[in-house]
Amino acid sequence: MNNELLNLLEKDARLTPAQLATMLGQDEREVTAQIAEYEKNHIILGYPALIDWTKTDDELVTALIEVRISPQRGDGFDRIAERIYQYEEVESLYLMSGAYDLAVTITGRSLREVAEFVHARLAVIDGVTGTATHFILKKYKEKNHLFAKLPEQEERVLFV
Amino acid sequence: MIDYEAVLSPRVKAIAPSGIRKFFDLLENMDAGDAISLGVGEPDFVTPWHIRDAGVYALEKGFTKYTSNAGLAELRREISRYMRRRFALDYDPMKQMVVTVGGSEGIDIAVRALVGEGDEVIVPVPSFVCYGPIVSLAGGVPVFVETKAEDEFRLTAEALRAAITPRTKLLVLPFPNNPTGAIMEKRDLEAVAEVLRGTDILVLSDEIYAELTYGGHHFSIANIPDMYERTLVVNGFSKAYAMTGWRMGYLCGPQPLIRQMLKIHQYAIMCAPTTSQYAAVEAMKNGDGDIQMMCKDYDYRRRFLLDKLRGAGLQCFEPRGAFYAFPDIRSTGMTSAEFCEQFLLKAHVAAIPGTAFGPGGEGFVRMCYASSLQNLSEAMDRLERFLKEVAR
Known about the structure:
CATH topology of the largest domain in chain B: Aspartate Aminotransferase, domain 2
CATH architecture of the largest domain in chain B: 3-Layer(aba) Sandwich
CATH class of the largest domain in chain A: Alpha Beta
Shape of chain A: extended
Largest sheet of chain A: 4 strands, antiparallel
Oligomer: heterodimer
Largest sheet of chain B: 7 strands, mixed
């Protein structure tokens, strides 16, 4: 497994196989083949961009919803998780340890739309015993990237 | 009316203004929003947060007074552990080190304590610009020894031997090297040691880039038998931990030498900045991982830049340390200064002419790859176009 290659792609998915090969000191064809293999084996799931939607004219609301469920015989939590993640609106879904069982994030166009989803879709799923919805007020950092641009030090001309 | 020329010290006046002054004037007056600088030799990382936080915390706790002259005892103990851990060198924290204001101060006090009127100091060049002027200010004479591309810019035993005279007091060993990226491996240093054995010549080993080597761990000349007792090691936090603005360095060596150097430090500087010293303690305690992460990242960019330089048709020796590439631009028919000026004016990319780093730099330019991959990539695209344009 070429974890270095994966680390580089996770930081910047736009790096080309040629660039990656140079940086890693490997053969370009080898890198291309490895990436194809990772895609095939679903190790690389996708190449999305990180976007700060608050700077666009789309007004979106994101919520983190705690979901408590009663596990089902044979399937544990998976079957209920499946019924939740199939919804397009669901951005991410994690099984958690601790006070609740599933963490769901969804993004909607309005508070109302998110609330709708929780009431009409999520809460009514068989086995879901309770939900708690937390709206995200501001994003500071995601996937190692800051939403705010840090101030830069004054430009310097010096000789080192 | 004071005649300023008459009141200034002849030694200070004799120091030549930096050969790249004109170049920097050009850069300063340029109003190109798309300019890319590969000129400044410093990490592009911000100091890791846990280190910055330790500095902030020291301020919160009110640690705002002087420290002891030689530096916080806790910091010296950490430096001592670090030197053992990373370079297998033993220095007594209470007797054999001074915490300095950057590596630069370490160089200055070492030279001032050793070099007297007419003493010669051997300085391999191309190298960092400070050695010659500091030696001259002390009344000494810098003797420049040119390292060659065909020797991978290493100092050879023959070149060293040829430069030694009865007045030779000190050898400066600036490796890993700024601007060439050259390193000296154990066998290279053993050859140098063989020349020095039996002489009273001391060594000032400037190891500020020791943590930035690629494909092998840095080896200090102080590790070679008979060399420890004649070697002063200069190191610091600037390059290893991306802490340039904190101005933190240290000087380690034999106690009888350090004791004298400490006197200069104590009268000229008093002590290194207290906030920075607390941050430096944290760096040494918990920063090994940061070094590794940054070094790996520089290595990616090093390979990338080298590949692009060669792809564009420039010869370039493979740099094995620091974060500079030193391509040979003689194929363009231009001098280093002309190349850098044209490259800046036409392609809006700043690089530094090799001549700025002393004799032996003509025909080469320094490019710093401590810059984002996007910057490097764009700069190299422009280089390729620029080279085609000037070839016509």
